[in-house]
Amino acid sequence: MTVLLSDDLRVSPVGLGAIMSVYSPAAKPVEPAEALDILNYAVDIGVTFIDTADVYGHGANEELVGRLLADRRTEVTVATKFGITGDLQGNRRARGDRAYVLACADASLKRLGTDVIDLYYMHRLDPEVPIEDTVGAMAELVAAGKARHLGLSEVTASELRRAHAVHPIAAVQSEWSVWSRDVESGIVPTAAELGVGFVPYSPLGRGFLAGTVSPGSLTADDLRRALMPRYSEDNLSANLTATGVITTVAEETGLTRAQVSLAWLNAKGREFGLPVVPIPGTRRRQYIAQNLASTQVVLTEEHVAALDTVADAVAGARSRDPHWISSGRE
């Protein structure tokens, strides 16, 4: 089973966010062999849409995905991103000038060990470079055969329109989930209008919506606490109550909390009339299988309506820096 994201870009109905890392620097990282085994298992069961970025592990993550592609390139749709310099620990900025775009693509191609990137995203908008210029450079990559399709991450509706006028955009990747719904006000309906697919990242709230994060479970150095206010100790306690309806729906349907959250996103895709392919990340085989199974779930209207109430009760913003995400620029 595949989903047509846009034009001729077909992907598995759920992808895998292959960052394969953890939020706490003190936590044990995933060993490369273990990570590769997880990636291979995902492809084995039909999760063939693999998402990475050059900033993840400063290129190491792309090299890992490259090991997968070395044996299974024809089975995998690979997406990667450019545009964040520094790191993800708060020492970051966006960059999108032409020279940088072209250099990043060549570096990613080398690390991935492939001659073409299936879906190449601008990870964040450079506030000092018009999006038309950045997408123009990305279009050069398509013309050169180095990228098949272009995508944008965390853009506003107007930014998408401006970019799409330069070159067709196949997909927008932004945070969208039961507890993060700001994208529904502008970018989601605009993507539907333009025929652009939507790829929600963090569809499980970085573990919180799946029930794997709770008050007291995050270490002091956990990046979620530093960069995302809703993961502060006080807000987590409030949000545990706010998301209790997910547990209720899970118990009533016999699904996991993660499956309920992903099925809700599928329902929203039908509501807005656009293809939605979430890319949850996980380090466990059973979760990959459960996430894939969620694509066969259709929630009742009553359950969807109940889950729709969650976001309004959530405490804390999804980013410490409002301009780092699309809602801060709408």
TrEMBL record:
Keywords: Oxidoreductase. Residues 25-310 form the NADP-dependent oxidoreductase domain. It comes from the Bacteria. InterPro entries: AKR, Aldo-Keto_reductase, NAD(P)_OxRdtase_dom_sf, NADP_OxRdtase_dom. Transmembrane segments: none annotated. SUPFAM superfamilies: NAD(P)-linked oxidoreductase (SSF51430). This is Aldo/keto reductase.
